[in-house]
Amino acid sequence: MLQLKKLTKTYKTGDQALKAIDLEVPKGQVLALIGPSGAGKSTMIRCINRLVEPTSGEALLDGVDLVKLGATGLRKTRREMGMIFQEYALVERLTVMENVLSGRLGFVGFWRSFLRRFPQSDVDEAFRLLDRVGLLHMADKRADELSGGQRQRVGICRALIQNPKLLLVDEPTASLDPKTSRQIMRLITELCRERGLAAIINIHDVALAQMFVPRVVGLRFGEIVFDGPPNGLTPGK
Ligand code: ADP
Ligand code: ADP
């Protein structure tokens, strides 16, 4: 479903963040991207959703090359990719419900769009998602009243309401304590399974990856140095 072919990113500074990455992610597969800081994990995720322009290579989502898309195609295809961020990127002054609904507007909506009314079907789906992640009772709270774990659960709902094919998850637990981190990883991986969603989860914490995903891809200096089930990993590698 997602195929990276010789995907390369060299920043203007000369940093070769990705060196000809080849990777296939089948439909419904969840994988963790691990590796030390600076390995190229964020760059890879950002090249796939084109927050960063790849230097060369291809990134095919169901056969469509994301690297070649113009503005219109990109807007459409980004709706097929849900993003979950380390720092949640919620709109603080909006409610939980509004933040979830903003996912329907595509990639991080503008608050002004709330002057528009959402169809009841979107509102119903938002309630279902909030119920699934245990936040139904918080729907009318403002985002700035939430704990970190609650914020990330809102971030998950916002990504899922787009009904994406692929989830791109950038360090979802980096700002959370260990117990909340496990809850969030469990929730993300369970929801992917329930919905048959593929995901790439960029995560620092190898132990956390090992607990929840069937496939781990290790990056180092912009190259894939490991690709396999997590039990094949040895500590320190
Ligand atoms: P992480 O390693 O957690 O992904 P970083 O601390 O490396 O994040 O980067 C934070 C931000 O700074 C990102 O937006 C990244 O693109 C940018 N950045 C990282 N390294 C450089 C660099 N050498 N020059 C310019 N910007 C950078
Ligand atoms: P990771 O997410 O694994 O920590 P990054 O993708 O953030 O790795 O960074 C990979 C490499 O690219 C690092 O050498 C980093 O300094 C560099 N880099 C990241 N973002 C930028 C940027 N905006 N400009 C220049 N170099 C960057």
UniProtKB/TrEMBL annotation:
Segments forming a coiled coil: none
Domain ABC transporter: 2-237
Stored InterPro entries: AAA+_ATPase, ABC_transporter-like_ATP-bd, ABC_transporter-like_CS, ABC_transpr_PhnC, MetN_ABC_transporter-like
GO MF annotation terms: ABC-type phosphonate transporter activity; ATP binding; ATP hydrolysis activity
Keywords on record: ATP-binding, Cell inner membrane, Cell membrane, Membrane, Nucleotide-binding, Translocase, Transport
GO CC terms in record: membrane
Protein's recorded name: Phosphonate ABC transporter ATP-binding protein
Species per Swiss-Prot/TrEMBL record: Roseobacter insulae
Gene: phnC
